Amino acid sequence: MLKWIILAIVVLIVIAVAGVVFWVQTEAPFHREHISQGSGKRALILYHPSRDAHFSDDLTMALARGFAEADFPVDRWTMTSRTPSKPKGYAIVAVVSNTFFSAPDWPTLRYLKRARLEDQNVIAIMAGGGKTERAEQKLGFALERTGAHVLDLRPLWTTRPNEPGSEGPANRQVAMKIARSMAREAGQLVRERNATAADQAPATRENPVQPAPAPTNDLPQGAEARETAP
Q1: Which domains does the chain have, with CATH numbers?
Q2: Tens-digit pLDDT profile for residues 95-127
Q3: CA 192, 44, 127: angle at the middle one, nearest 5?
Q4: pTM of the predicted model, to two decimals?
Q5: Phi, psi of 30 (to 5 degrees)
Q6: Are residues 66 and 184 in contact, defined by beta-carbon separation less than 8 angstroms?
Q7: Rounded alpha-carbon distances, angstroms, from residue 170 to 84, 103, 126, 157, 167
Q8: How many Cβ atoms from other residues are within 10 Å of residue 172's Cβ?
């Protein structure tokens, strides 16, 4: 009898764990929002909401502050089956994914499988408790298949120290600081590259190269004639 009771308890635990895993990885509704306003090309943050500790959600807001410090207006979208596969009008995109069983969450992988991010500047965060190495590698491969130009990909953790000595509640704040700095530095890099490319761009009808001014003679009128007259 005891054997069957133990077996039943084990089965219930397995079912409960499977239910939690399915719940946290279930696709969220597609939601898009403007985090900060402005003109020109924007920064986009793609993420799957964290339904337990809200770690990925907080990371997206830290990224948004960093992009804003680099003078980018910021949008935020959830990654779903309805999320556009080729976002348009964005100078840089950030992807935030959660680690489950040594892999990025299902909505992230499903979205990146169909995404078309050819030559798009991208940064990415692999969020997790502490053991994210395999998930980080899989996220890198998934981004590579989209054609994205990955500027930075790094893990950020809830329990494993993000910096030496950062433990407990302070560790979460360190993660936010790193995410903010990551977005600011990547945004500044993209702005500098775009400015350099604009300076080196060939002339167009809208922006023609102006002809050089004709050479002028600085001598007073009649001076040349006086100098050359016999």
Answers
A1: 26-195 (3.40.50.360)
A2: 999 998 889 999 999 999 999 999 999 999 999
A3: 105
A4: 0.77
A5: -70, 125
A6: yes
A7: 36, 26, 19, 12, 6
A8: 19
